[in-house]
Amino acid sequence: MSQQGRVDRQAAYLLHAQPYRETSLLVEVLTPQHGRFTMVARGARRPRADVRGVLLPFQPLTLSWFGKGEVRTLHTAEWNGGVPQLAGMRLICGFYLNELMLKLTARDDAEPRAFAVYDQAVRALALADSLSATLRRYELRLLQALGYAGSFACDQHGAAIDAAALYLCRGGALPERDAGFDPTGPFLRLPGSELLAIEADNYTAISTRRAARSLLRLLLTDLLGEEPFASRELLQAVNAIAD
Questions:
Q1: pTM for the whole thing?
Q2: 54 with 43: CB under 8 angstroms?
Q3: Helices (H), the chain
Q4: What domains can you pick out in the chain, each with its CATH number?
Q5: What is the pLDDT of residues 33-89, one digit of tens each?
Q6: Quick one: angle between helices 89-104 and 232-239, nearest 10?
């Protein structure tokens, strides 16, 4: 008899795992076609379980599962390899990737672009020279993939950004040319040259990485509030990466 709601061999990443009952795990996974959802990995904590060394964070997986409820059941899991294990500050940054994805996405919403952004960021974290650039790139691309941020090539009136001008940036709005007064609410002044560098994905200059950090912090705070992450220590550690 076929299993109800069976889905075979889907690309996935594990975002979170916790013990469930005596020998199982509850895992939160991200997939391109089925979005983010929870499944139970029955017997995964047994010493000889087939999936014990497979369900690893920050590693590309191929999963099969069944069930249509809020919690599905894992059927098989394969490790695809090819990504070095994260350690040290790279591991902390990886936890940040996961927490941001959990905060910004809704369960069961297929987000193939968000999955691609996450996949690229995990692979980049393992090898990148600049962790700051990798994090800023991930934040911006994820916000854009989910429709929370637009392009920084034009201002809110559709005019091309002038590299020599100053712009006001506010959460949820395109940049506005600085008219010399402070608006109400949180805002940030940035040179057009930095906005264009961010738009061009060019984080070579330390000034651009710092400008991007301030800009992305403004956008994320507008969406998630002042304390968007469960661990303040984690957030402080990630925000300390400016170079």
A1: 0.90
A2: no
A3: 89-104, 112-127, 131-145, 192-199, 206-224, 232-239
A4: 7-79 (2.40.50.140), 89-239 (1.20.1440.120)
A5: 999 999 999 988 888 888 888 999 999 999 999 998 889 999 999 999 889 999 988
A6: 110
